[in-house]
Structures are given as structure tokens and as C-alpha cells.
Specification:
It is a single chain. This protein has about 200 residues and is an alpha/beta fold. It has a single domain, classed as Flavodoxin domain (Rossmann fold), CATH 3.40.50. It is about 40% helix and about 20% strand. The chain has helices at about 15-30, 40, 65-75, 90-100, 135-140, 140-155, 180-195, and strands spanning about 1-5, 35-40, 80-85, 110, 115, 125-130, 160-170. It has a 5-stranded parallel beta sheet with strand order 2-1-3-6-7, sandwiched between helices. It has a two-stranded antiparallel sheet with strand order 4-5. The structure holds flavin mononucleotide.
């Protein structure tokens, strides 16, 4: 299978990147093809321009970076999105990727405000990290918000089948002993669970 992995974190030395490398490494060990979009290193422009809201025409073609990004999603069987929760949401560069690339006519159509996804047949995996413990996020209702917005509203409304949302909590500068190894093993296990058959 072809996997497109989109990751948003400014620091390559971050735990987000350690998880990303373990995830893609395990996929490749199983014989899958991976392409990684490292939005920060690519300098992805997250700002949606006014002309991108207008109908596509010969005079108003899709912006080249968006066209390339859409082509890479079209070519992929699985889209995996990896990011830390920042203010319970995705880093702004990831939000800009969604705003611009998951455009009307590509990721969804809408009639009378009712959205239907155009990317059905593709699978997705969401991997998030937080500083806060997951039980605390659940107790406060915040986890519900994360799931409604990021799993259901974005990925599922674009038509993806969401195979898994794997969350790693209490990712803090001084990780508790053994936690890094445990989390890296968990992200590899996620790959084996869903993609053992190529
Ligand atoms: C701008 C910013 C906002 C954050 N907001 C939250 C938050 O709302 N909830 C939370 O649990 N952690 C929050 N955090 C903590 C990050 O989720 C945590 O540091 C990150 O998952 C650790 O992964 P890393 O080592 O790859 O950066 C925030 C961190 C930053 C930098």
C-alpha cells in the first residue's frame, strides 16, 4: 500500500518526530511505500488565499503546491496525520494544510450546507500527542471535542475510513522512565495491527 504521512512539528528532535520515524520505519519493514510531508521543513504555506475560494478555471488554476499535495493524497491508499495537541487542536501549519488542500471539489462537496466526502475508499490514521493525561482530557469533556472535530469533522467528513486514532499522553520534556520505549512500541504495533498484509 502507499502511505502518505503528514506531520506537523517545528523540531525534528521532538518526540512527535521519533513517533513518525518509528511509524514509517515499521511500514517500510512490512513492505509498504511511504511518503512523508514534513510541513515545517517543506515551508508549507498555510494561508488560504482569496482566489482559492473562487471556482477553478483556466484563469484561476489550483495553486501549484495545493495541486501537488492533492495529487499525493490521490495517489495514496492511506493518509496518516501526526501532530501534538496545541490548545486542544492542531498546530496552525496543519490547519492551513487542511484548509487549502482539503478543498471543495477535491475533499468534499456541499449542497445546502450538507457536506459529503469525496475521498471515500481511502483509509486514514490519526496520531496525536498531549501534555495532559488522557483521563483528565476525558473528564473535562475536552477529549470529546478533539474527537468530534478532528476525527469526525475533518477526516470522516472528507470520506476517509478512520482506522485508528492513537493518542500519546503526558508527553512532557522529562518523560517518565520507559515511556518513550513503550510509546514507540505502541506506534509500531498500530502499524502491524492495521497493515500487516501488504
Ligand atoms: C503552543 C502549545 C500549546 C499546547 N496546548 C496543549 C493543550 O491544549 N493540551 C495539552 O494536553 N497539551 C498542550 N501542549 C503540550 C503539547 O501537546 C506537548 O508538549 C506535546 O505533545 C509534546 O510532544 P513533543 O515533545 O513532540 O513536542 C501544548 C504545547 C504547545 C507548545
Amino acid at each position: 500500500m502507499k502511505h502518505l504521512v503528514v506531520v506537523a512539528h517545528p523540531a525534528e528532535a521532538s518526540f512527535t518526530f521519533a513517533l513518525t520515524r518509528a511509524y514509517t520505519d515499521e511500514l517500510e519493514l512490512l513492505g509498504h511505500t511511504t511518503q512523508t510531508y514534513d510541513l515545517y521543513r517543506m515551508g508549507f504555506n498555510p494561508v488560504l488565499a482569496a482566489h482559492e475560494l473562487e471556482p477553478i478555471s483556466a484563469d484561476n488554476p489550483v495553486s501549484p503546491d495545493v495541486a501537488r499535495a492533492q495529487e499525493d493524497i490521490r495517489a495514496a491508499d492511506v493518509l496518516t496525520v501526526i501532530y501534538p495537541l496545541w490548545w486542544l487542536s492542531m498546530p496552525a501549519i496543519m490547519k492551513g494544510y487542511v484548509d487549502r488542500v482539503f478543498a471543495r471539489g477535491f475533499a468534499y462537496e456541499s449542497q445546502q450546507g450538507i457536506v459529503h466526502g469525496l475521498l471515500s475508499g481511502k483509509k486514514s490514521v490519526l496520531i496525536t500527542l498531549s501534555g495532559a493525561p488522557l483521563p483528565l482530557l476525558v473528564k473535562s469533556g475536552n477529549w470529546n471535542a478533539v474527537q468530534i472535530l478532528q476525527d469526525t469533522h475533518i477526516l470522516r467528513s472528507a470520506g476517509f475510513e478512520l482506522l485508528d486514532h492513537v493518542h500519546f499522553d503526558v508527553v512532557v520534556p522529562q518523560l517518565a522512565p520507559g515511556i518513550a520505549e513503550q510509546y514507540l512500541a505502541e506506534v509500531r504495533a498500530c502499524v502491524r495491527t492495521h497493515f500487516r498484509e501488504t
